Structures are given as structure tokens and as C-alpha cells.
Amino acid sequence: MADASGGNVRRLTNDLGQSRWPALSPDGSKIAFASKRGGWWDIYVMNIDGSGIRQLTHDPGFDGYPDWSPDGSKLAFSVFGGYTLHVFVFSFADGSLTDATPDAAAAMHPRWSPDGTEIAYDGTRFGISSGIDLYVVQPGQQARQLTSADGWERQPAWSPDGKQIAYTSYPNGVADIFVINADGSHPRNITDKANTDEYEPSWSPSGIAFRSNRGGRDEIYVMNPNGTNVRMLTSSIQDGDPNWSHDGRYLLFDSGRDATSEIGVYKNDQYRSLTHGNWFDTDPSWSPDGRRIVFSRSKTLGRNDLYIVDAASGKTRRLTHSRGMDWAPAWSPNGKQIAFVRYEGFGAQIWLSNPNGTHQHALTSSGSWNDHPSWSPDSRRIVYSGRRNGNYDLFVVNTRTARQQQITHDRSLNLSPAWSPDGSLIAYVSPADQALDDIWVIHPDGTGKHVITHGDADSESPTWAPDGSTILYAKVDFLGGDGTLWTTDPHGTNATTATRDLTWSTASPSWQPLH
């Protein structure tokens, strides 16, 4: 929680399980939030100092996006039971739970009107598939639709006088903050910043707070209701879900500023930590013999180096000493080299290193951003994602001659390629439509491209099983934003969850080779 100026930041929760969407009660004494600390997303309430945590819901599904009624007697939040996602209202007086959107197929991000008579939300109705729109409902009655544009209109936030609603829309492939009159008239874009995502608005007398990556990482900003006088409120790592107090004196948000990440091994439904400390460890890649893991470690903002950890003992040694950032390491199948990405202020390029840290050199020099290297099974070529003319496409480069071939030619984002063990396919990430990322496969010569996942969430970071029969990937839940690991075969059938009973997010999987 912070003051309206962004100062006096204090931490309120400290639990391994994720916590999101904080909302301050009108009298300023309680905070409602959602947390996955119990294994599922449920609604909790605690005192303003973080004490007295009380769990309100105990559902084996998803409960999230809580918002207080203006008189503090009720909470509105979304409940997903497996088939529909509705807004429910919880009464503190008698503990009752009432469905406020019985006619909705999906209803998310509920926000009470300032007078407490209506709830704005985003969602869909049965029989309407044009996208996600904004609705307003008096609990238990027929909802009225505010928007009908193609695509998504999400995350409504009422103006303090109840006459307007701010929301997130995606007019040009990126998120912008819009404002619309409460009767659905006169929608207008008030951010309209190219190549920048602006979303999660919250409106108070102090202005419209919102989340933005305009500075290179997600931070919270505030602006006037017409979009002018934009200023940064937070400056840390991964700040989001801003929510003003009703009087605009305080701002609640969730943050990764005190978070850490570690390298761990998951086997037979059991998790074992290999690295743990006051740093961010990411991007693990196994050695071919399955005994070591190379990964990226960040101890300070803007600096990453590569380290190698022994999978049995946990003993770690440093591999690179970069002036900038090294990430996305990939061990060659013959074990002789490690490919990685290095950024030193003039673009990101693919580099190579011996496993003992010697003979480090750049493999690529063209393009402003090259990422996600993956080796061919014969250790002679590397596929990577490269930005050219504003698009991300896949390229294959010969590690001896540095000659390159572009294998995708889409006006899209083609990311995170992974070469199959038999060399016949490359799995990668790309949006199947304008909303969600899916896993695709393509032949190394650029033919045979097709999508193999069609989920209700973003699918990321594919990696192949050693025998090539299965693709492991991270699935980022649309509702909670947390990641779980899934498997599927190369044809896209038999998708199954691979990690169970973990209360924290998982990402960047790497499969241990057979040995």
C-alpha cells in the first residue's frame, strides 16, 4: 500500500501463495483480496496492517476480483465453477452469497457504482461470441450492455461521480485506457501510446491509476481523467492491480519488488528446490547428461549472468560476467557449447560459450532483438526468435558459418522456439488469434505450420520430452495470471496438467535428458 504520491510503501502480505486484486474497505479498516495460498484462488479479508486474515470462500475453482460496496456491507467478486463465471455478492450481515449475473456466460472484474445501486463488469453472454464487452447490472436483474466493439473491453472503473467508466481496450493489438459515458455513449481512447500496454485502470479523486510497461517494465502510473499529466507512481519490479481507496488518499497494489524465484526440480509430483536466495533465478536448461543445469540469475535490476548448478548437490558456479544481461541459456546436445542471449545496451544477440566459460563470442549481429535460442539435435544449427521491421519471426542460423534462414514470415509474434529431438519439428509460441498465445509446430524448412493448442489461456515456453513424444509447456491462466505446467503430444491431443498442488506460479520448464 502507498500514499497517493506513491510514497510510504508498505508490504501487507507475506505468503508463498500468490495474492492479487487488493481492495480497501470504505472505512479504511479492512482489505479484501484473492489468494492462492490454499491451493485455489479464494477471497480473503484482513486488517489494514495485514493481521487478522479471514478466508471467506472455500471453492475448488476460482474466486477473484473482489470489490466493496460503498457502504462496506457487501463484497462483489467473480466465481468460476467450471462452466460459467458469474459475479456473486457476499453479505457480511448474514454470510449469504447471491448470484448477481445469472444470465452471463462470463462476468469478471466487478466494480460497484459510487451510489451502490449497480455493478459494472466485463464478460460475455450466451449466444454472443464477438468478444468481451462491458455490462452494468443491478444485482439479480437483466444486465445492460455498454460496449459492442470487436475484440475485448475489460476492467471497468467508475468515475467518482458515477457518470463515466474507464476501461481497457485493445484497438491496435496493444492495451489502451478508454473512457465511456455510463450510458454507453462517447467512448474515447485517453492513452493511445504505440507499442505500449496500458491497462487495469482505477479511478478516484486523485486521478486514474493504471498499469503500464511504457518504461520497459510494469509499473503504476496516474493521469488526469482526460489522459494528460501522466506520472509514474511506483518504480520497482512488476507492480500491478492498482486500486484506489474511495477518497483517493491511498493506493493498493500487488508487486514483485520483494519476490524471489528459484530453480527447482519436479519429479513424481514432488518438488525439490535447487537454488534459493535473494535473487531471481530463471531460464533453466539441462546439460545433455542430466547432471547440471545452466540458468540466468539476477541479483540487481538490469544485470543478469549465467550460472551452472549441480542437480545432485546444488553447488553453483558462475559462468558469465556480463556488463549487461545474459539470459535464455540452451545447452547443445553434444554438451560442448551453451547458447544464450546477451544484451549490453545496443540490442540483444545470440552468443556462444564453452561450459567452462571460455571462448564466449557473438553468433548473430543483425537485428535489434534476437531471443530464445534452441539447438538442432546435431548441434550444428540454432533456431531463434528475431525482431525485424517490428515483427518477431523464427530464424535458423548455422553455428559454424553464421548463415541464416528465415522460416516464418508472419505479421505476428513468433517466440520461444524449441527443436524436437529427432530434428523434424520446431515448436514455438504465436497467437492463434488476436487474444491468446498458443503452441504451434513447423518444419525447419518453414513448411507444415499448424497450431496444436486451443486453450482458454496463454500457452508459453514449449520444451520437448527427450524421446520427442511429448511437449511440455507453461499455461498462464486467463483468470489468475498464474502459470502451471502442461503436456501435450505433437499433434495437440491428450493435453494434461503436469504440476499439481503448487500454490506458486511455475514457468520456463526444461526436461531432464535421459541418461
CATH superfamily of the largest domain: TolB, C-terminal domain
Instruction: Report the radius of gyration as a whole number of Å.
Output: 24 Å
Query: What's the main sheet like?
Result: 8 strands, mixed
**Helicity range:** under 10%
- What is the strand tally? 45
Shape: globular
> CATH top level of the largest domain?
Mainly Beta
Distance between the termini: 50 Å
Number of domains: 3
CATH topology of the largest domain: Neuraminidase
CATH architecture designation of the largest domain:
6 Propeller
Mean pLDDT comes to: 89
Class computed from helices, strands and strand pairing: mainly beta
Structure report:
The structure is a single chain. This protein has three domains: 18-115, Neuraminidase (6 Propeller), CATH 2.120.10; 146-257, Neuraminidase (6 Propeller); 264-497, Neuraminidase (6 Propeller). Helices cover 0% and strands 48% of the residues. Strands 10, 11, 12, 13, 14, 15, 16 and 17 form an eight-stranded mixed beta sheet that branches. A four-stranded antiparallel beta sheet has the order 2-3-4-5, with no helix packed on it. The N and C termini lie far apart (50 Å). The model has no long low-confidence stretch (mean pLDDT 89).
Give a quick rundown of the structure.
The chain is mainly beta and 515 residues long. Helix content is 0%, strand content 48%. Strand 3 (30-35) and strand 4 (42-47) form a beta hairpin.
Q: Could you give the topology of this structure?
A:
Elements: E1 2-3, E2 19-24, E3 30-35, E4 42-47, E5 54-55, E6 62-68, E7 74-80, E8 85-91, E9 97-99, E10 104-112, E11 119-125, E12 131-137, E13 144-145, E14 151-158, E15 164-169, E16 176-181, E17 188-189, E18 198-204, E19 207-212, E20 219-223, E21 231-232, E22 239-244, E23 250-255, E24 264-267, E25 270-273, E26 280-286, E27 292-300, E28 303-310, E29 316-318, E30 325-331, E31 338-343, E32 348-353, E33 361-362, E34 369-375, E35 381-388, E36 391-398, E37 404-406, E38 415-419, E39 426-431, E40 437-442, E41 450-451, E42 458-464, E43 471-476, E44 483-488, E45 496-497
Parallel strand pairs: 12-14
Antiparallel strand pairs: 1-23, 2-3, 3-4, 4-5, 6-7, 7-8, 8-9, 10-11, 11-12, 12-13, 14-15, 15-16, 16-17, 18-19, 19-20, 20-21, 22-23, 24-25, 26-27, 27-28, 28-29, 30-31, 31-32, 32-33, 34-35, 35-36, 36-37, 38-39, 39-40, 40-41, 42-43, 43-44, 44-45
